[in-house]
């Protein structure tokens, strides 16, 4: 995704519910910071890069965070337990663009320690976002969907690197 692709994607994401971008690590509680991030690149300048989660407050419970005294950061307690989407952003480095992805765990451990499906509305939300990507990014590279903007940049010499950084 180009920066403009990210803007369009997140604009669409926000039409699907009350969605927040939660920083992957934060010196203050991530939910306190989350309201200030409209786009992924708003996280720029963070010591741990642009790692973050998307949380749809309309359908999912509040994710749990833990304080790591050693690193002096709050972290998501467990992506396996939380109903958050984990985007891996595309990275542009020296004329090359890495592949991004969206990820969720479909299952969690219930109170008795048994594997259970996560909330159907959460899984449906993830599937809806994936359908939007397939519909709007029709070009393919190494199994991934790419936008017309990325295709234009490839024609000008941009290299696509897959999941390499």
How does the SSE layout of this entry go?
Elements: H1 3-14, E1 19-23, E2 25-26, H2 30-34, E3 52-56, E4 65-68, E5 73-76, E6 86-88, E7 92-93, E8 96-97, E9 101-103, E10 107-109, E11 115-117, H3 120-136, E12 139-141, E13 144-146, H4 148-155, E14 159-160
Parallel strand pairs: 8-14
Antiparallel strand pairs: 1-3, 2-5, 4-5, 6-9, 7-8, 10-11, 12-13
Features:
single chain, about 160 residues, alpha+beta, three-stranded antiparallel beta sheet, 4 helices, globular
Task: Report on this structure.
The chain is an alpha+beta fold. The chain has one domain (3-160). Helices cover 25% and strands 27% of the residues. The chain contains four helices and 14 strands. It has helices spanning 3-14, 30-34, 120-136, 148-155; strands spanning 19-23, 25-26, 52-56, 65-68, 73-76, 86-88, 92-93, 96-97, 101-103, 107-109, 115-117, 139-141, 144-146, 159-160. A three-stranded antiparallel β-sheet has the order 2-5-4, with no helix packed on it. A three-stranded mixed β-sheet has the order 7-8-14, with no helix packed on it. A hairpin with a 2-residue loop joins strand 7 (92-93) and strand 8 (96-97).
């Amino acid at each position: 995704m180009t920066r403009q692709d990210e803007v369009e994607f997140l604009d669409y994401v926000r039409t699907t519910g009350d969605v927040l971008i939660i920083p992957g690590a934060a010196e203050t509680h991530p939910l306190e910071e989350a309201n200030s991030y409209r786009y992924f690149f708003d996280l720029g300048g963070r010591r741990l890069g642009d790692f973050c989660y998307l949380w749809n407050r309309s359908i999912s419970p509040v994710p749990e965070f833990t304080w790591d005294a050693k690193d002096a950061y709050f972290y998501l307690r467990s992506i396996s337990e939380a109903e958050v989407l984990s985007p891996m952003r595309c990275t542009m480095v020296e004329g090359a663009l890495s592949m991004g992805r969206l990820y969720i765990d479909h299952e969690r451990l219930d109170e008795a320690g048994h594997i259970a499906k996560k909330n159907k509305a959460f899984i449906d939300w993830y599937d809806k976002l994936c359908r939007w990507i397939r519909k709007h990014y029709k070009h393919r590279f190494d199994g991934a969907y790419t936008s017309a903007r990325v295709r234009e940049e490839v024609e000008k010499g941009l290299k696509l690197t897959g999941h390499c950084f």
